[in-house]
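Lay summary. Proteins are chains of building blocks that fold into shapes, and those shapes determine what they do. In this project we predict the shape from the chain. Here is one chain we studied, written as its sequence of building blocks.
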Amino acid sequence: MRPSIRNAILAAALLPLLHATGAAAQPADTTQLRRELERITARHAGVTGISVRNLATGESLSIRGEETFPSASLIKVAILVTLLDEVHQERVRLDERSTLIARDRVGGSGVLKHMASGLEPTLADYAWLMTTLSDNTATNLLLDKLDIRSVGLKMEALGLPHTKVHSKTFRRATSIAPDSSALYGFGVTTPDETTQLFTMLHEGRAVSAALDSVALDMLFANQDANMMTRWLPDGTRVAHKTGSVDRSRNDCGIMNTPAAPIALCVMTRENEDTTYRIDNTAHLLIARIAREVYRHYNPAEELPALPVIGGG
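And here is the predicted shape, written in a compact code that computers can read:
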């Protein structure tokens, strides 16, 4: 048989398979999504970074995603992953207890600051409080167990060199990077690196499949509904973590949508609106972005109508 005839027969036999695999691998066009996100962020009085990844197809979109932003409490995801890595290495146990004493209490978010001295929660208890209520006292007690530097080292090992925690919360004197602390506060990261961290948790590659599932269970229980989850359909499960300081508001995580799980990270800095009201303009911006990303991947799904709030 001549080579040309043999090649034609082989091509005809492979054509259906090539079409099938090509259709499955072909990513959706994100041009319109990018255009809409750029339109939304252009109206915000502040700097916005966005990173999106379809966890079924690998398709991604990044707008200022490589830039560094103050993490605020978003860095607690990195602390959680580092804690679970220490558990995996059998250096600590989640059922290990640590006593709360008066000097441990710090301000800001959380409930432990109201609890009596002598309480002996487990490390798992502290992790749940840090993740679901962003408890600052719990965070500091975990950092006492971990050592602040270990968080950065774990992130570097995962290929996330710009994700760092600088100090304990409300304890600037503990900073291991004073110059970076002055610029970024408690911690620093990028939208792209945070999306990658959530991707690794989803795939069971951050620590281990079992321990990454533990982290996601905590992140699904996050109680802050002011940003990413605000205008999503009822019942949408989102594993996420927020972070708020005066001029930066962040929310990053995984939206479980009918079409696919979507990793989304929205970070802001230099915001003009520094209030802590529910309708802070950065909160509304992040909610709008999450809704638009959800709609892009699930065009047939019915979404709640957007309320009319001051400037739209």
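What the prediction tells us: Residues 3-25 form the longest helix (23 residues).
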